[in-house]
Amino acid sequence: MDRPTQDPLAQGLIYEDALPLTWRQIESIPGETQLARLNDSNEAFLRALSALEEHHPGYAEMEDRFPIIRQELERLDLKLNLLMELVGHVLSRQMMLPEPVPVRVGAQGIEWRCEPLPDRGSRVFVELYLRPRYPRPLELVGEVVARIEEGVKLAFIGMSESVQDWLEKLIFRHHRRHIARRRLS
């Protein structure tokens, strides 16, 4: 397994927010089988988030050809979103999510600020709740490569290329929405 880079947030776009996060120190990096299961689970979660957040590009062109079908699909989409919101709200009340902390996430690593913090060189398992209304965490494994004022930087270890690609897509969508909101202000 490759050693983590010194600054995992030095390249690419960064997702910044205050998100629920919990971590625990682990003795060693999980084996290949465990990492494969973790990667499969994370990929499925990131794909689901992508599907929930993106509107189908074909809806617009359907307006001209099939306006009634488009209206029906949009109505079903709204109902499913409402259902997801309600289920997520109930689950988040029962699960007791951790308190949000300032985080910066890149495709290679994560930085967070809270107390207590792991030591440099520690191997850590992180649960990051990207969408608290869908209370399922992204589960990450890595090594603390730096301690910064009141925080740490963790370089991911064992993340598959596919999970990294989906994470980059999520970061890009977040970045695109952030820029759009700034332009409207």
Structure explained in plain terms:
This protein has a domain at 15-54 and 97-184: Thrombin, subunit H (Beta Barrel), CATH 2.40.10.220. Helix 2 (58-65) runs antiparallel to helix 3 (67-95). The chain has 4 helices and 6 strands, in the order E-H-H-H-E-E-E-E-E-H. The chain has helices at residues 32-53, 58-65, 67-95, 161-184; strands at 15-26, 100-105, 109-113, 123-128, 138-148, 151-156. The chain is globular and about 60 Å long. A hairpin with a 3-residue loop joins strand 2 and strand 3 (109-113). It has a 6-stranded antiparallel barrel with strand order 1-2-3-6-5-4. With 185 residues, it is an alpha+beta fold. The model has no long low-confidence stretch (mean pLDDT 85).
Q: How much strand content do the residues show?
A: 15-25%
Helix count equals: 4
Shape: globular
One letter per element, helices H and strands E, the order comes to EHHHEEEEEH
**CATH homologous superfamily designation of the domain at 15-54 and 97-184:** predicted glycosyltransferase like domains
Helix content: 40-55%
Q: Which sheet architecture does the biggest sheet show?
A: 6 strands, antiparallel, barrel
- The gyration radius over C-alpha positions equals 18 Å
Overall SS class: alpha+beta
The averaged pLDDT comes out at 85
Q: Enter the CATH topology name of the domain at 15-54 and 97-184.
A: Thrombin, subunit H
What is the first-to-last residue Cα distance? 46 Å
Uncertain stretches:
none
Give the beta-strand count: 6
Q: Strands across the major sheet, in which order?
A: 1-2-3-6-5-4
Instruction: Please state the second-level CATH architecture of the domain at 15-54 and 97-184.
Output: Beta Barrel
Per CATH, the class of the domain at 15-54 and 97-184 reads Mainly Beta
